[in-house]
Amino acid sequence: MVTVGGEIAFVTRMIEESDALKNRVQWYSSMLGKLSSVSEVVEQLKMRGVGNWAVTEFVQGTRTRRWGVAWSWGDMRPRMDVARGIYHLPKHLLPFPSEVSFSILESTIDTVAGRVNDTVRSLDVQWKYRPQISTGLGFAKENVWSRSARRRKQQQGTNPLADLPNQPITEESSEESDEIEPAFGFKLEIRQGEEAKSTEVRCRWLKGVDHVLFESFCGMLKRQLSSN
After folding, report:
1. Rounded distance, CA 67 to CA 79, Å?
2. Phi/psi at 75 (nearest 5 deg)?
3. Pairing mode, strands 184-192 and 135-140
């Protein structure tokens, strides 16, 4: 296909049209023939305030390569291996990492999972934990894990959102987060660590536009688990 201005101009028009349509389409995407075009397209997205995008590389045989860029005006975050599919791109052109992992030494999976569950249940979040698979799914309206937020929580009493009806734990259920309109959605998985006698805690960012919330939540959880 030949278009005036080349592929950069073509995708720029797509971005402009997506700005008008916004969330009427969940994800927009385009395939590019030049690696240099990826940088220009991502910069265009950032200039327009898009904070949720993905980049990847398509390899056919030993020589043919194409590159893909996708973006969304919504707040549902793709998996990190999907969103950051071109590892050799400069860091500022890659979307913010949507997964953080850390290890807890000298602890069993059941012990760490119990502490994770207790820590999150103590917060004003919507939380559902499945002990059979050591996995939990949660949503928060705001930063409720800061020291000031936890102090307010202690003054106000128990958390009315801690005990939810039993429902399937799927990432798709993040779209059905009841009526609390969460600003942040997350998934926690507790697995056997690679090191001997260690347990890995994996934090996955599912929903939200503010990466600071994701960072601070993961930092809080790591501090809580490492301090015990």
Report:
1. 18
2. -120, 15
3. antiparallel
